[in-house]
C-alpha cells in the first residue's frame, strides 16, 4: 500500500505543470537562425512561457565554443544553473513542465512515434545538408564544397534526395497527420512538441535558402503545406514571427 501511494505521488508530481508564478527563469542560447533551436523557441511560445532568447552571432562563436559543455549549441540555463545541452531534451522539458497540452502523459507514445518519424526525415536529409557545411565529416577536404567537384556532389545529393527520398518521408508524415485526425501530428485538437519539430523541419524546405532546394519543394504534398499553414496561423506563432520581422 505504501509503495502504491509513493508511486501515485510521484506520478502526480510528474504530471503537474508549472503555473505562471512557478515557471523558472530560462535562457536559451542559440545562433540567430532557425536550426535545431527554433523548435524549442516555438514550444516556449505555444506554452506562453517567458524566456530569454539569447542569439549568438556566428562571428562570436569561435570564442564562445570552448566555454560550452560540448562545443555545440543550443544551451539552456534554468534559474541561473549550469548550462544544459541537447535540443530534444530541451523540447521535451518545455513540453512536459510548461504546458498541459504540448507533451501530455496520456499521449506520450503517439507524440514519441511522431517525433521518430520527424527524426527519420532529418536523419535522411542531414548528409545532404552537411556535405555543404562540413564536408570534412564525410572524408573530404574542408573546402571541398567550394570546388567544382564539391559543388556538383552537393547538387547531386540534394536533387537526388528531393526526387527519391522526399516522397517517401512526405508520405510517412502525411500518414501520421491523417491517423491523428487530419490536423496535427499526434493530436486531434492541439499541437504538441511533435508539431513544433515537424514544422521546423518542413518549413526549411519552403524558404529557398538552401542551394538546389527550391522554395516550392513541398508543393507536390498538399497535406504538408496545409499543415505548415495551420501551424503558422496559430495566434502565438503568428505573433512570434510578426515580431521577428
Q: Can you describe this structure?
A:
By secondary structure, the protein is mostly helical. The protein contains ten helices and three strands. It has helices at 2-15, 38-46, 61-64, 87-97, 108-133, 148-164, 166-179, 193-203, 222-233, 235-244; strands at residues 26-31, 52-56, 75-78. A three-stranded mixed sheet has the order 2-1-3, with no helix packed on it. It is globular and about 55 Å long.
Summarize, please.
This protein has 10 helices and 3 strands. With 245 residues, it is mainly alpha-helical.
Task: Pick out its properties.
10 helices, mainly alpha, three-stranded mixed β-sheet, globular, 245 residues
Strand order of the largest sheet: 2-1-3
N-C termini distance = 57 Å
> Uncertain runs with pLDDT below 50, 5 residues or more?
5-14
Tell me the radius of gyration.
Answer: 20 Å
Class inferred from helices and paired strands = mainly alpha
Coarse morphology: globular
Order of helices and strands: HEHEHEHHHHHHH
In total, the number of strands is 3
Give the overall average pLDDT. 93
Helix content: 40-55%
Percent range for β-strand residues = 5-15%
Helix count from the secondary structure assignment = 10
Largest sheet, described in full?
3 strands, mixed
Amino acid at each position: 500500500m505504501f509503495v502504491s501511494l509513493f508511486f501515485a505521488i510521484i506520478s502526480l508530481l510528474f504530471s503537474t505543470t508549472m503555473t505562471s508564478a512557478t515557471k523558472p527563469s530560462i535562457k536559451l542560447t542559440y545562433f540567430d537562425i532557425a536550426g535545431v533551436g527554433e523548435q524549442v523557441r516555438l514550444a516556449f511560445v505555444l506554452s506562453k512561457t517567458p524566456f530569454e532568447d539569447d542569439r549568438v552571432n556566428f562571428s562570436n562563436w569561435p570564442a564562445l565554443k570552448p566555454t560550452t559543455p560540448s562545443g555545440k549549441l543550443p544551451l539552456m540555463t534554468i534559474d541561473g544553473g549550469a548550462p544544459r545541452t541537447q535540443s530534444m531534451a530541451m523540447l521535451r522539458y518545455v513540453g512536459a513542465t510548461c504546458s498541459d497540452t504540448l507533451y501530455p502523459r496520456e499521449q506520450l507514445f503517439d507524440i514519441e512515434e511522431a517525433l521518430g518519424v520527424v527524426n527519420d526525415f532529418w536523419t535522411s536529409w542531414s548528409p545532404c545538408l552537411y556535405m555543404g557545411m562540413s564536408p570534412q565529416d564525410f572524408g573530404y577536404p574542408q573546402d571541398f564544397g567550394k570546388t567544382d567537384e564539391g559543388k556538383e556532389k552537393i547538387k547531386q545529393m540534394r536533387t537526388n534526395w528531393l526526387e527519391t527520398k522526399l516522397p517517401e518521408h512526405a508520405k510517412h508524415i502525411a500518414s501520421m497527420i491523417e491517423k491523428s485526425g487530419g490536423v496535427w501530428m499526434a493530436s486531434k485538437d492541439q499541437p504538441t512538441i511533435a508539431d513544433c519539430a515537424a514544422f521546423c523541419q518542413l518549413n526549411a524546405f519552403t524558404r529557398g535558402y538552401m542551394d538546389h532546394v527550391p522554395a516550392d519543394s513541398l508543393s507536390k504534398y498538399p497535406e504538408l503545406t496545409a499543415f505548415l499553414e495551420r501551424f503558422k496561423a496559430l495566434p502565438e506563432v503568428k505573433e512570434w514571427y510578426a515580431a521577428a520581422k
